[in-house]
Write a structure and sequence with these properties.
The chain has 247 residues and is of the alpha+beta class. It is 29% helix and 26% strand. The structure holds magnesium ion.
Length: 247
């Protein structure tokens, strides 16, 4: 069942989402050569607590950290640890916060120092595919239209779309219905309604879109170890478009 949020609930979510966006952006700016992913995680935990929130991911299904820190070939769900970021890496920072009973979920992939042009293009296309999907969002539109717009951008760039992982509804639960693949057919799927809150999150690969789960049971990598990027916002459906909550 899809939960429709009241305007008051969306107001709370946008308040929490804005604070979470500031934390995400601070972490992104700290992702420089020499810092460990665990240091980023510690800062994330402190900032979420200071904002009056709770980390959504910590303990979720047993996940052991506040952020998912996914470096290079890691697509999502990387566990922060002693890995030191190096010049030329990319890092996906995925973070969720529960605030006044409601979650927000957002992710960005950023360069560490200078990166190759073709890897920068991967980041740009991933972001662009998100915004192509976002543009389709409004009351009355089929979810398949949103998914198809994302797919088109990624496929025209000849990158891989990770198919096993999807966007999702967000609210009192971190992951609610519906699930939102990053590919689909126009005119199919759920019809978006004002008050629905969803996370759209394309996961894109430079090479094969096939995935592997690492021995830690969490980290998902590309099977060919090619670079991968992830970009995500939580947004509310409105009569005229989408309201990004995590900004
Ligand atoms: Mg998500």
């Amino acid at each position: 069942m899809i939960h429709i949020k009241t305007p008051e609930e969306i107001k709370i979510m946008s308040e929490g989402g804005h604070m979470l966006a500031l934390i995400r952006d601070e972490l992104a700016s700290l992702a420089k050569p020499g810092i460990t992913t665990k240091q980023l995680d510690d800062i994330a935990f402190k900032r979420i607590k200071a904002a009056g929130g709770e980390p959504s991911f910590l303990g979720h299904g047993g996940f052991p950290a506040t952020i998912c820190a996914s470096v290079n070939e890691q697509i999502v769900h990387g566990i922060p640890g002693n890995q030191i970021l190096q010049e030329g890496d990319i890092i996906g920072i995925d973070i969720g916060m529960k605030y006044k009973g409601f979650h927000n979920d957002t992710a960005v992939t950023v360069p560490v120092g200078q990166i190759d042009k073709n890897i920068q293009n991967l980041l740009d296309i991933t972001k662009k595919s998100f915004y192509a999907g976002l543009k389709e969002v409004k009351n009355g539109v089929h979810l398949g239209d949103v998914q198809n717009a994302i797919q088109k951008v990624i496929e025209s760039a000849k990158y891989g779309i990770v198919r096993e992982l999807t966007g999702h509804g967000v609210g009192r639960e971190l992951q609610e219905e519906p699930s939102i693949p990053n590919f689909g057919k126009k005119g199919t799927g759920y019809i978006l309604k004002t008050g629905m809150v969803i996370a759209i999150e394309p996961m894109v690969t430079l090479g094969s879109p096939e995935i592997n789960i690492s021995q830690d049971g969490w980290t998902i990598t590309t099977s060919d170890l090619s670079m991968s990027a992830h970009f995500e916002h939580t947004l509310a459906v409105t009569p005229s478009g989408a309201q990004i909550l995590t900004q």
